[in-house]
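Before relying on records like the one below, remember that each one covers exactly one chain. Contacts with other chains, cofactors or solvent are not represented anywhere in the record.
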Amino acid sequence: MEILEKEFFSIRRKMLANFKEQFEKHLELGEKEIPIKSFGAVNGVYHERGNEVYFIRPRVRAGVLSLKQLKGISDIADQYGDGEIKLTTRHGLQIRGVRKENVYTTLDELAKYGLYTQAVGGKSIRNMVISAYSGFEDEAFDITPYAVRSVNYLFQNEDTYSLPGKLKFAASNKETDEGNAKYSDMGFIAKKIDGENYFEIYFDFGMNLSMKNPYRYSKVIKAEEMVYYLRATVMMFKDNMDMKNPRARLRTMCRMMGVEAFEAKYPQYLQKAREEIDAIIDVKKLYSDIDVKYKEKPWAKKVDFIQRGLTNAEIRNIKECFYQEGIYAVKLKYRGGVIKKGELALLVKYLEKVSHDIKIRLSNNQDIIIFDLSGDEAIDIVKIFNSLLVKTDLEDSITCTGMPRCRLAITSSKITMDNILKYFDKHDTNLKKQLPMIRMSGCPNSCSLIFKGTLGFAGMIKSVDDERKMAYTMISENKNIIHSMKAVIVEENMPKMLFELAQCREKFEKFNTDVKSFDDFVNKNADEVNEIIAKYM
């Protein structure tokens, strides 16, 4: 809505003016006196570790990009950065290696493509992460427009950019929670009730190592009420959390007051949010065209991928549209989420040849997904970009930026994961299929959501015979892995330990053919799994 855009651009102008003033002081006095984090993060500008260069993070709403925007990102990265682009785990990306003289130009060039950098970092709200295939798969309903339009309202509020701490949102289109709603400060899970769109709300998990379970809000809400609840949460967080608290997060506030007090107090902020929003916009108009009927696409073409020569390992990267046969999406994964110089341009070049509209989305697993492809086009992409396909769950693993780029990192998670895959390729590449997706972070901050799933690893330092070595703390949601949060594995031993776990599963399955997953294997063979982990602690 125009009023939202007008307010956002007014705030953005003020923020950029302040950023430029502070950036000049930062360049003059240095990082020690004027750290870039103190004013740059909320504007999407960060200092890269060990270099006099920066990375810039544009906001990608719900991960949705147009082909024009994708091309713009590719061109800007090549022209004003070092050409490298990092995909994040929150539908985002980073343009790397931007020299100081190119920072302002990069911000301006991104804006020409409708890509803005405000509220992607610092003490502000963040983008809303959602299920990557929402609107394409079998689901309660398409949550994409709800997420985009609701968060758009928050961006036109000035207090959005000056909170006590960061505030992260997520939404999922069905119970399986691919959007990680239960792993965010505030999350929404879509439900159909009597044919109407509703959300369950979850609070207070956040991205840390606490392993604290989320709690579900007592009320299931109508989907069009999402914006009220988001705004109420922002208001409550700001009023009830000390701005100077270095650990200020929604979970901190909730733990301090307790669930009962939160439930009693929250409706007061909900009422304030309703009054504020209703005075500015008509919420019915905000969501008026959300349930537009799916329009069939005449160019659709269903194909038999096996008959056309694709393997099952390749086909796992293809998904067929739930709403119409013969329309496909193909997932591409750049290892470690890193797109090297020139690689994105190759993808753009192919996509520009497609004769009809396509959709592009960044996932929360560091993927680029190309939607609305015919069967022939899906096959073309699989063949042309075969090196970017995920053939096993292990190859689908997620790593953060890590060293040497990130200033907070203790280890290089990407290099560690590369070494793990190389070890398997050298000794027995087929054993990759025995392991699950791994989530790995270069520090305990968990940019890779390391506490979700069977195997997660957080970077740290371990003393071995008075020598400090890079290492990883193992984290698992599987309760049968008793060494979770206790096992600290030296970096150089990570490939060996994981390879031995893979060998153990392969051997176990020869006599236990009913093993359906790595978790199932752990549950049925926990003693041996824990013995292997203990060897490397």
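Residues 2-29 form the longest helix (28 residues).
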